[in-house]
Amino acid sequence: MKSLFLGFLLMACYAPLSADENRGTGDLGIVVERANGSLQVIESSGNTLLGRIEGLGDLSHASAVFSRDERFAYLFGRDGGLTKVDILQRKVVARTIQSGNSIGGAISQDGTLVAVSNYQPGGVRIFNAATLAPVAEIPAEYGGGKPSKVVGLVDAPGNRFVFSLWDAGEIWVAEMNDPAKPVIHKYKGVGMQPYDALITPDGRYYIAGLYGEDGLALLDLWNLDKGPRRILGDYGKGQQKLPVYKMPHLEGWAVAGRQLFIPAVGRHQVLVVDTETWREVGRLDMHGQPVFVMSRPDGRQVWVNFAFPDNDTIQVIDTQSRKLIKTLQPGKGVLHMEFEPRGEEVWVSVRDIDRLQVYDTDSFERVAEWPAMKPSGIFLTSRAHRIGL
Amino acid sequence: MKSLFLGFLLMACYAPLSADENRGTGDLGIVVERANGSLQVIESSGNTLLGRIEGLGDLSHASAVFSRDERFAYLFGRDGGLTKVDILQRKVVARTIQSGNSIGGAISQDGTLVAVSNYQPGGVRIFNAATLAPVAEIPAEYGGGKPSKVVGLVDAPGNRFVFSLWDAGEIWVAEMNDPAKPVIHKYKGVGMQPYDALITPDGRYYIAGLYGEDGLALLDLWNLDKGPRRILGDYGKGQQKLPVYKMPHLEGWAVAGRQLFIPAVGRHQVLVVDTETWREVGRLDMHGQPVFVMSRPDGRQVWVNFAFPDNDTIQVIDTQSRKLIKTLQPGKGVLHMEFEPRGEEVWVSVRDIDRLQVYDTDSFERVAEWPAMKPSGIFLTSRAHRIGL
């Protein structure tokens, strides 16, 4: 086990590796430093900072996906910037401002295509993953040519992209076998204002959250002919119209066995859903309004962070007993958590105190910590091997 | 999609990359060439052979695990050899003959320890993953000091190793938090002659096959106090004592949702087991006696190869309909299959015709093929990120 002692020793140390060193890339990762438009490149074997990549523009709400060789990251910036960075050599290799305002992206199953979903002008743009050359454009028009904002874009098995149309209330599935000519399947009337979505880790179920009404839209990608259906009809802001400080992220929803742990909207609760019946089977009271609800890779623990003003805290649920087993206080502004692929440690970005922290998930001890400039999203290269990430 | 044309173009081509090139390691893999005591180093983005590593001794039944940075592989040879190879630079970096006869190994969750299970002299030996220096020895003695052969060694969450004692009929769990002083939990009377084992992908259930009697021994690692129990009492060679050409491998058992697909012993069938009740819920008639029954990472397909004389064939099951959807004939001596991490392609070693083949799992087309010297086990570096592999 990596010791706490080692962790302290490594605090704030800038690693001595040269950027062109020959090394494996399976234990690398990037951390978005929002204040600076930069990325920290880190490694999770010794928990050290290897260096920075700078000049990436507006990185608020930025997210990333990885090439299948775990060497390159594709950054999706809120300013419409799509940037390909070489993590190994720590430099930008290609960058394009592909729209006025974008909200995330995905990489195809075979790693050859990168897709970006756009607010402004709407639609999805597809790029060659090697060069970032444009390959195709999906306008996402509805109701006689009106453009829709696109959200909740994910990759799915069969070299498909799946996404939701905020303005149209639709879910679209794009088959990319002929990349220049995507085959689109459109599902209308899924609900008002889908605002985000997730795909289950096996790539089978696509679930969109609805901002404009309660409930969730579920599409079974193994049975597209059945179309979308509504699940968890009470899920959402509800009739009481509670103040919602932050709509919870859907991307990190935790699957443990057949249980799905999801953040309640506006309530200090995590809900437990049975993924066979898609019904709620329990709820747990929590410290605040949950934002990310993420399962350790073995499914035994679920880690939860919270919206302001409770965002200095993380709570850990034991999925077998469905009980709260730990409350941690990393500091103000816990924005994101990322598990190492076999789950022994978890990385935490704490924005307001400008710290990056690593915790042992068995002992809950902090094993490493160092400065970061307003850190937000943390992305480890192991995501390259997982469906929907 | 990687085209068939590209596949043919790449047939038998020896890649031009130099061994010290800076590159990612997430799409690399090794293929055991038994005849030659060598490994092919391959990459799965373009499906090419990058080079060979030679001088690895007796590689019959050899298996491998990977360092968490996906740069190094640890090879477990039947001759007791433990070899650490640098896949990136394609060379042996450390090698030790650690016993007279070994049967596989594992790497700890945190990547710091490598464990090897031995037939001769029995027991488990633990090595430092960086240097291969000995760290600890677990003798596996029973009945007043008799040594037992050890089989079915896997890693489990919580930095544990789990293994079975063939002679003793026991399952042991070793906690490695203080590596020099493993804490051992022993479970006796699990059944006669456990011969191999698997751990479910979430790292929760350890299941040992029994050679000396029917049924399987199941240990729930989340509830060790409950001890092992017997499941599938009819599973095994049965009262008819059918000729068994090859005991099926347990390692590759396929989990799809809550269904487990397992090879029948001695029968031309694959059994379907419900992982909540641990009861058989169906069986499918197959082309021969199944050896490996492996699920595509998304769980939608299960691929099966067979024992002699039917080992020229692969069959594919659709897990939703539980129907056979494809029969392929790669050639005589199909020994192993390995899925790419997001499941778009599968690698197949065909020993008797000295070929390595890659298939698209959607179209079932062969997309690449080249010569290999009696290829057997195929191991992609993405295993580094998975529990129990």
User: Stretches of chain A where pLDDT falls below 50 for ≥5 residues?
Assistant: 1-17
Strand residue content of chain A: over 45%
Structural class of chain A, by secondary structure, is: mainly beta
- Please list the strands of the largest sheet of chain A in the order they lie side by side: 3-2-1-34
Give the tally of β-strands of chain A: 34
Q: From the 3D coordinates, which CATH architecture of the largest domain in chain A would you assign?
A: 8 Propeller
* Oligomeric state: homodimer
Rg of chain A, Cα atoms, Å: 20 Å
**CATH superfamily membership of the largest domain in chain A:** C-terminal (heme d1) domain of cytochrome cd1-nitrite reductase
- Estimate the global geometry of chain A from the Cα principal axes: globular
What is the share of helical residues of chain A? Answer: under 10%
Q: Largest interface here, residues on each chain?
A: A-B, 53 and 53 residues
Count of DSSP H/I helices of chain A: 1
The major β-sheet of chain A equals: 4 strands, antiparallel
Question: For this structure, what is the CATH class of the largest domain in chain A?
Answer: Mainly Beta
The span between the termini of chain A is 28 Å
Number of domains of chain A: 2
Q: What is the mean pLDDT of chain A? A: 90
CATH fold description of the largest domain in chain A: Methanol Dehydrogenase, Chain A
Q: What are the SSEs and their pairings?
A:
Two copies of one chain form a homodimer.
Chain A: H1 4-10, E1 28-33, E2 38-43, E3 48-53, E4 63-66, E5 72-76, E6 81-86, E7 91-97, E8 101-107, E9 113-120, E10 124-128, E11 134-138, E12 141-142, E13 146-147, E14 150-156, E15 160-165, E16 170-175, E17 183-187, E18 194-199, E19 205-210, E20 216-220, E21 229-231, E22 254-256, E23 259-263, E24 269-274, E25 279-285, E26 290-295, E27 301-306, E28 314-318, E29 323-328, E30 334-339, E31 345-350, E32 355-360, E33 366-371, E34 375-380
Antiparallel strand pairs in A: 1-2, 1-34, 2-3, 4-5, 5-6, 6-7, 8-9, 9-10, 10-11, 12-13, 14-15, 15-16, 16-17, 18-19, 19-20, 20-21, 22-23, 23-24, 24-25, 26-27, 27-28, 28-29, 30-31, 31-32, 32-33
